Amino acid sequence: MSRPVTVRVPAKVNVRLAVGAARPDGFHDLANVFLAVSLYDEVTAAPADGLTVTCEGPDADQVPLDRGNLAARAAEILAKRSGILPAVHLHIDKRIPVAGGMAGGSADGAAALLACDALWGLDTPRAELLDICAELGSDVPFSLVGGAALGTGRGEILTPVPAGTFHWVFAVADGGLSTPAVFREFDRLAEGRDIPAPEASPALLDALASGDPDALAATLANDLQPAALSLRPRLADTLAAGTRAGALAGLVSGSGPTTAFLVRDAESAARVAAALEASGTCRTTRVATSPAPGATALPEG
Ligand code: C5P
Known about the structure:
The chain is α+β, with helices and mostly antiparallel strands. It has helices at 70-82, 104-119, 126-136, 140-145, 179-190, 202-210, 213-219, 225-231, 235-244, 266-279, and strands spanning 5-22, 28-47, 51-56, 88-93, 148-152, 157-160, 166-172, 221-222, 249-252, 259-263, 284-290, 296-297. It has 2 domains: 5-161, Ribosomal Protein S5, domain 2 (2-Layer Sandwich); 166-290, GHMP kinase, C-terminal domain (Alpha-Beta Plaits, 2-Layer Sandwich). Helix 1 packs across helix 3 (126-136). The longest helix has 16 residues, at 104-119. The structure holds cytidine-5'-monophosphate (C5P). The site of cytidine-5'-monophosphate (C5P) has 12 residues, from strand 2 and helix 5.
């Protein structure tokens, strides 16, 4: 019988999330600059008679264990394509905030795909794994690839971009925000306005490559932020508390409600995290660096 396989997979933050008008298929064209950060989930695939999912971690009770879980869907799609039964137990060690705008669900989909591929000895070509990721969700291909990348289309068409090291603090809010609801609010706020084609600014890409946190702080932007703030006005207090505590810049991460703060170094990260926790404007904080590697199988043992 095959040995269990564990895959570690990072969370992401978007340093530029440019959103275009709604497309006929309901999705939005994006220019989405992803950075993988050093907050990880681990997904273990073990032989089993059928498909089951379990989860541990501080927010495990908020994670669906049915087919609504992208890890389960990844196993099903891979098995179907390969003409086998999805006989696997998936265990998720959940450290990435749930429904937080950090692609935690997408991360588990990418990790489960890689873990099942290894468990079942399929050796699926990388391009095919990326196709399955895109079928699972717009952010899932990036969870597989990691590092730093520009995502176009609905975010699934990836071009790697150079990135220096940056330090981050994440403020985790109480409760999640639904990504479709945030995009709907974006559409509502955009009604009657001309939405330009989404673009990643050259200044942001230069700042990212240079590793200069002041330059990156000046160019961070998220077009979904007004929509997230409209649905969750108290996030403005969290953003203000982070910048007051010495962050170089703060923004809503993806569709939120996690907020991300760019800081100068590890010492500043610890100070800003402590101040945010003391401010009472968030549930908890996490400190991380970018870029981080994409989904990776851990050595056995
Ligand atoms: O691709 P994913 O399943 O993660 O997307 C979740 C939802 O977010 C979509 O159903 C859609 O409402 C919204 N979305 C969007 N445009 C994108 C990505 C996501 O409108 N580029």
